[in-house]
Write a structure and sequence with these properties.
28% helix; alpha/beta; seven-stranded parallel sheet; 10 helices; four-stranded antiparallel sheet; 19 strands
């Protein structure tokens, strides 16, 4: 080709290249405009819980208004836009790597399955399908603690005549988190045997950078492992057994080849002693112990939960005020609903019946998902239920023992709360409480008996299911 013929051809080629580039840019501008003005990125869309019709074999739909359509080869973009517009939908995103694959958004508010069926009938459509949620396949974690098989509350396989699955789904939760030594749970009880072989590694010890407890009236207290409000000392050793049992439910060391597993394999348990060897205590000592917890939190100790497995039918405004101050400090207060087979809406039980925003009142279930015969209940005043019959846990003198009561159900919930905080350490007390109450398995037996009508589910609480 000579020079004279070459230059016109080159000019034509350059013009065609510029036209193609400009057309591509226009298409990008159109897509950006549609996204900015009519839609939002998929990841930022609020989740809409699907109804029964939105269920599929592969899981739940991730959004009620979006679905995927692949048009057959040869279907032009103009045809696609015409079809989508005719059905009152819009193209939200084109999947460039798969020819003809589009993310479509329904703008009529129709059921996803109905809209997908409409597209499947079109001759231009190769396939159409709903968008499904995808979750990690969390393999249940089984600890090597030799007596774990007796802990039906954590893993109920029907042992001793129980109902398979009537448990808190602990093994699935452990696939996500086994707890954290950054989370401190205060056990407000008869103290804790902090030397127990299955608890010692999970007992709170005052860090070197935290000053010892100083009280204007009580003086300086060397609170190495917590607080004894009876004697105003730093030795909260348990001489009853009840507090040690509750502590083991929350945080007996898991996976150590010894004894049992707590709801948390790793946690820090802060022992608080306000009840004596006979199991008796006073509101004054309970208040002083709560005051100690608030002080320690303000001093920099990450104590976020108080587990309180005790109560009375007598109301104390002073105790209520102390619990409210714990709420102000960001501390959850998990309390036993009581063991009198009573409707606490009619006959309140304290502290579980105080109307304070950080309180969760807990009822007890047996190994068949039945409300325990002794458990209090209340559709307005008892919030949630947890296993509380024949619960194996730590006891004095390095022993293990079964015990029953809403006292045992309470640390189950406190333990799940600690699991949640191990994963979400900055969660507020309000959000933590809300999450726990929403993380239940609904049970017919609890309908009209508790606020949630359900049993705590640890796996749901930590996002494992």
């Amino acid at each position: 080709m000579n020079r004279n013929n070459f230059l016109p051809h080159l000019a034509v080629a350059l013009v065609l290249i510029l036209i193609a580039a400009f057309a591509g840019q226009i298409r990008q501008w159109q897509k950006l405009w549609r996204t900015h003005h009519h839609g939002r990125p998929w990841a930022s869309r609020p989740h809409v819980a699907p109804g029964p019709a939105a269920q599929g074999a592969g899981g739940r739909h991730s959004s009620a208004g979006e679905f995927l359509v692949r048009f057959k080869a040869g279907t032009s973009e103009a045809s696609i836009q015409s079809i989508v517009s005719r059905l009152h939908d819009r193209v939200e995103d084109e999947i460039e790597s798969v020819s003809g694959l589009e993310v479509i958004e329904d703008e009529d508010g129709k059921d996803v399955d109905t809209v997908v069926a409409e597209y499947l009938e079109l001759p231009e459509v190769e396939y159409a399908e709903a968008i499904f949620k995808i979750q990690l396949e969390a393999k249940p974690v089984v600890p090597n603690d030799p007596r774990f098989g007796e802990q039906w509350a954590l893993a109920n396989d029907g042992q001793r005549g129980g109902k398979e699955g009537a448990d808190i789904s602990a093994m699935r939760a452990w696939a996500v988190t086994k707890g954290s030594d950054k989370v401190v749970v205060a056990v407000l009880d008869s103290g804790v045997d902090y030397t127990h072989r299955d608890l010692a590694s999970n007992i709170w010890t005052r860090p070197a950078n935290i000053s010892e407890y100083q009280d204007r009236d009580l003086g300086d207290i060397d609170d190495v492992h917590g607080f004894n409000a009876i004697d105003d000392t730093g030795d909260p050793m348990d001489d009853n057994g009840h507090g040690t049992h509750c502590a083991g439910i929350i945080g007996a060391e898991g996976g150590n080849g010894d004894g049992i597993a707590g709801v948390n394999w790793t946690v820090q348990i802060m022992p608080l002693k306000f009840m004596d060897a006979s199991g008796s205590g006073t509101t004054k000592d309970a208040i002083e112990a709560i005051n100690y917890v608030i002080n320690r939190r303000k001093a920099g100790v990450n104590v976020r939960i108080i587990s309180a497995s005790w109560g009375s039918t007598q109301k104390s405004r002073a105790l209520e005020d102390a619990i409210r101050k714990a709420y102000d400090a960001g501390i959850l207060f998990v309390a036993a609903s009581g063991n009198s087979s009573t409707d606490t809406d009619q006959n309140p039980h304290y502290p579980s019946s105080y109307n304070v925003g950080n309180i969760i009142s807990v009822a007890a279930l047996d190994r068949n998902d039945r409300l325990a015969s002794f458990s209090n209940y209340g559709p307005k005043s008892v919030h949630i239920a947890a296993p509380g019959v024949e619960i194996l846990s730590t006891w004095l003198d390095n022993e293990f023992k079964e015990a029953s009561g809403t006292s045992m159900a309470t640390p189950m919930v406190a333990g799940v709360a600690a699991l949640v905080l191990s994963k979400n350490p900055d969660m507020s007390v309000d959000d933590l409480r809300k999450l726990l109450l929403n993380s239940v398995d609904k049970l017919q037996v609890l309908k009209g008996k508790t606020v949630t009508g359900g049993r705590i589910n640890a796996a749901k609480a930590v996002g494992a299911e």
